[in-house]
Structure formats: structure tokens, C-alpha cells
Amino acid sequence: MSSSAGSINWSQVYNTPIGQILEDLNPAVFETLLTQSTNDQITGLQNQEQQDQTQISAWSTLQSDAQTVSSDLAQLAASSTYNQLIASSSNNNVATAVDQNAQQGSYTITVNALAEPEIDIGSTANMTVTNPTDTLMVPGTTSPLTGSFTIAVGSQSATITMPTSGESLNALVNQINSTPGIGVTASAVENSQGDWLLEIQANQTGQAISYTDNTASGPLYYLGVVSSSSTATQSASNVLQAASDAEVSFGSTYNASEAITSTSNTLTNLIPGMTVTLLSTGTTTISVTPNVNAMVASVQQFVSDWNQWVKDTQNLAEGGQVQEVGSGANATYEFVSNPNQVLTSPLPLAALNQAANILGSTTKGTGTYQSLGDLGITFGANGMLTLNTTTLTNALSTDPGGVESIFQAIQQNLGMGITGVINGFAEGPTSSVGQAVTTLNAQIANDKTQVSLLKQQMTNEEEQAIIQYGQWVNSVSKDSEQYSLLNALFNANSGSNSSGG
I need a surface site. Which of 219, 220, 274, 466 has the fewest CB within 10 A? Predict the structure, then answer.
């Protein structure tokens, strides 16, 4: 713009009313006004997507709850649940037993001897070690004790080679213990004279240890583990404890002619289908009985999982409850809405109520048990189950087959049984949950598409806003110029009239 006498002084523009408009309606404000409607639509769709995701999560929670209950009931209707056995020992100090697949019954055994590992110890006959951290030296020389030797236990063996610079007794012990596959554990032990000896114990019971110095007068000879300086394979010169086998027989007294021996104290062939661990000599009776505790635990798990399904359904899908306010003659009832409700569909509550009706009406059990109530399982006012473990334990102890028949009836009752109810609600894409989630996912996909289109539309609106803002500023600038000229003329005329007066 030229600097003629009638031009606008832009440093004074914001001192005019129109200039104030320019200051208040800056580009960012102008852009926001033009895109507000589109942005509101995007926000609404994104909020809807979040609500749909929350509903999917709620449906998935209830689906998982229902499937877990179905799995529990299938287990309780299976004969294998009531065929569980447990092994126990009348004297756990003598032996313990773990049932794997043993026959029910009692077995009395007498342990005459335990399997023991061989334990060998060196001597001071050829070398005296007064400090286990000092380098071992060949007696009468200034040379370190070196060489190699082999230790064998059963099918395991390994060779130890001492470094040419020598090493201490402690270092040799560590070297033996860190050698894989050697089958022994070494220790440095102090005798009553204050000297240190090499002790070697087999890691396996009932297995003898053999030694070979690979050079004449080798390390094992000097340390007194073997008595000969030759390179032949030898037994230990000082055996603290010889390797021995376990000895056990059936009956309350030991019968050597019918005894079973084992190199291990863990026997898997003493009683078919059972692992017996021998701990000391003596007599014990091993009993294989029904594992009632495991059966009770299965029922307890069902009750817990059912109550979780009830809790989640009431929390996520129930609109509220009628609650009593006050008491006695002054009591009133009012509906209290559930602030945590996510699902408005009636299907979750309908499925739960249908399943509860099946559980509560079963009367097809055999024997003395006709319903869950006979087993100590009852419904509370809140729809949750309570369990009397004493009643259940008595039922399982006296007639596990009768308990089984109750849960089998639950699976089959009312034509399709509870399995059909739960499957219709929670299993597969055509179930209530499957259809609801499919619909919500489709809605989310559609909302995402709409949001993408609206974001592109808003980008176009922002670009258009820049153009329109420039046009608007030009228009306002012209108005401001006219305002300034008119204001100048007005001020000039006012000045003339004042001086002329």
C-alpha cells in the first residue's frame, strides 16, 4: 500500500474497533469455528468406539466366566474325578508314597536297609596338608603336585587334570565339583590333628567309586585316596561308608528270601503305579484310598467360578436392584440403579437365570442324593452358591458315584442341560456373545471409516479456512481504512468548528 496522505497507519489499526475484531478472531479461532461441527462428529464417533470396546470387554468377561463354569461341570460329571486316589504312609519317617496309578488297597512293608552312597577319605600317610589354601607340593621337593586322575561311579566318569603351576586343596575340590558328569562331590575336611584331607562322596546310592592315577605316584596317591602308586584302577584306601543297596520286603517283619533290593531309595517297582521313597529302617503301611480332598476341591472350584459369573453378570449387565430402606412398619422399597452397568442387553441375565434354574431343580440323582442341596450346595438370595464342605465330604466319602450322578443330571436336565444353555450363550460365533461381539466389531469398523473420512474433510476445511481468513482480513482491512479516513475527517471538522467559535 502506498504512503499517500490518505493511507492507513497499521500501527494504529488495533486501536480501532475493527482492529480489535482482527485481534480477537485470529487464524486459529477462525479455523476452529469453521471445523467445529466436523470435530464434534469425530469426537462423538470416537467416544462411541470406546463405549463399544468397553462392551466387547464386558461380553468377553461373561463369556469366559460361563465357559469356565461349563468346564467345571464337565469335570464334575466325569467318572475320572471320582476315581482319584491318594497314597499315604502310616509312618512317614520310614517311607512316603505318591500314587500315580495304583490299585486301591493297603500294603505293609518293612525296610531293612537304606541304599547308601560310598564315602571315601584321604590320609596323611604320604602328604600332610596343614592349610587348604596353600599350593599342594610334592613331599620333600619344591615342585607343585600335578598330574591327572580319573574318578568313575557306575557309568559316569571324568578326568581331572591339575594345572602345571599347581593348586591348593580347596581349588582341587572346586575343580572336581565343577567338572560335569563326574558323579561325585568333593570336600576338604579337617581331622582331629588339624590336618586337611580330601573327602569324596558318590552322588548315587548303591554305586561303588573307582579311581585311577594316570601317572605313577599321582595326586590321588599323595593325597592318600588310594594306597598304591601304580596307574591301575583301584578302590579307595579309606572307605568311610561303603555303597549299599536298599532292602525291603512286604509284611510286618523283614523276609530276606523275598526281599527287593535297589540301588536307590526311590522305588517305582515296589508297588505297581506308585512311587515309594524310603527314609529309614522300620515298618509302615501304605494305603491307597479315594482322594476325597481332591474331589472336594473340584466342587469348591465350581462354586467359586459360578459365584464369579454371578458377580460379573450383576455388575456388568444388571440395571439395578430394589433395596429395602428402613425397617419394620416404616420400611419402604426403592430401585437403586447400578452405576457400573455396561451392557443393556437382557441376554446375560437370562442365560445366568436359566442356568441357575437347572442347577436348582435337578432331581435325577441316584441313591440318597437328589439335588445339589443334598451335597451341601445351596443358593443364597443374591444368586450365589454356598458350600457346606462337611456335608459334601460325607457324601463323597460314602457314595462318590451318587455325587457324580447329580452332576451328570445337571449336564442332561431339561432336554439340552446346562451345557446347552452355556453353549448358546458363550460358545461360537452364533452364540449370544458371539453375535453381540460381531455386531460391535462391525460398528467399530464403520465408525473408524467415518472418522477417517471426517478427518480428511476437516483437513479440507482447515485449508479452506486459511483462504477464507485471508479474504476476510482483506475485507476487514478495507473497512478499517475507511474507518480511519472517516475518523480523520471527523476530527478535522471538529477542530475547525472549535477554532472558528
Answer: 466
Q: Which helix (H) or strand (E) holds 87?
A: strand 85-89
Residues 425, 422: Cα–Cα separation, whole Å: 5
Cβ–Cβ under 8 Å, residues 215 and 231: yes
CA 133 to the chain's CA centroid: 47
Tens of pLDDT, residue by residue over 342-358, are: 999 999 999 999 999 88
Residue type, 290: P
Residue 31: count other Cβ atoms within 10 Å of its Cβ: 19
Count the residues in the chain: 501
Classify residue 182 as exposed, middle or buried by CB count within 10 Å of its CB (0-12, 13-18, 19+): buried
What distance in Å separates the CA atoms of residue 172 and residue 178, rounded to the nearest whole number? 10
Phi, psi of 238 (to 5 degrees): -130, 100
d(CA 157, CA 181): 6
Question: Is residue 98 classed as helix, strand or coil in its secondary structure?
Answer: strand
CA 26 to CA 159: how far, in whole Å?
Answer: 88
Are 199 and 187 contacting, i.e. CB atoms less than 8 angstroms apart? yes
Instruction: Quick: pLDDT tens for 421-473.
Output: 888 898 889 999 999 999 999 998 998 898 889 888 888 877 787 777 777 77
Give the type of residue at 399. D
Mention every residue, 6+ apart, whose C-beta is less than 8 A from residue 138: 144, 145, 222
What are the C-alpha distances in Å from 463 to residues 33, 39, 460?
13, 15, 5
CA–CA gap between residue 300 and residue 298 (Å, rounded): 5
Burial class (CB in 10 A: 0-12, 13-18, 19+), 229: middle
Beta strands per DSSP E along 180-329: 184-190, 196-202, 209-213, 239-241, 246-250, 260-262, 266-267, 274-278, 282-290, 320-325
Contact assessment for residue 148 and residue 215, using Cβ atoms and an 8 Å cutoff: yes
d(CA 176, CA 187): 9
| Alpha carbon distances (Å) from 323 to 334, 346, 399 | 6, 21, 42
- Structural domain spans, the chain: 16-84+291-482, 85-115+245-290, 119-241
- For residue 263 the three cell numbers come to 540301588
Contact yes or no for 188/169 (Cβ under 8 A): yes
